[in-house]
Amino acid sequence: MMSSVKVECVVKANALVGEGPVWEESDQMLLFVDIIGQKIHRWSPATDQVQFVGTADTVGFAVPRRSGGYVAGVGRSIVAVDWLNQKMTSLVDVDKDKPNNRFNDGKVDPSGRLLAGTMGKEVRPAQVEKKQGSLYSVNSDLTVTKYLSQLDISNGLDWSLDQRTFFYIDSLSLRVDALDYDPNTGHLGNRRAVYHMEDGEGLPDGMTVDAEGRLWVACYNRGRVINIDPTTGVRLQTVSLPATKITSCCFGGPDYSDLYVTSACLGLDQSERSQQPLAGNVFRVRGLGVKGRPSHSFSG
Ligand code: BGC
Ligand code: CA
Question: How far apart are CA 100 and CA 107, in angstroms?
Answer without folding.
Answer: 22
